[in-house]
Amino acid sequence: MQVIIYKFVDGTTNEVEVTEEFYKIHLELLQQEKRNHWRETRRHTSLYYLIENGIDFEDKSADTLAIIIRRDNTERVHKALLTLSEKRRELVRKFYYEEMTMRQIASQTGVSHTAISQRMKTIRKRLQKELRDCSI
Hints:
- This protein is mainly α.
- It has helices at 20-41, 47-52, 64-71, 75-82, 86-97, 102-109, 113-135, and strands spanning 2-7, 13-18.
- Helix 4 (75-82) crosses helix 7 (113-135).
- The longest helix is centred in the C-terminal third of the chain and has 23 residues, at 113-135.
- It is rod-shaped, with a radius of gyration of 29 Å.
């Protein structure tokens, strides 16, 4: 005979005597529960890992620069764009005007998605600064 000890949430315990066969089944069920838990938790990956592997979580609706470019497509925006290098202007054109995704731009240019994302982040900061300076 074997003893299985149950621990309850309130801190109390209960001991149950079971046959050897039932005890083996109980141990197998505990092992299966551990394996299921491991299978479930191993799928939890970091956001950086997902972004590097092609899953894009960027919310374009929150991109204030996109709103300005689409709404305020005036001389002020064109002046700000002229402060950028030709390569950066090309990225802006593809992303905001042609509405390509960063993933599409990355595959087209042969550069990683992360690199395109970083470049766009730099471009946004620069253009927002230029547009802020122009409005003063």
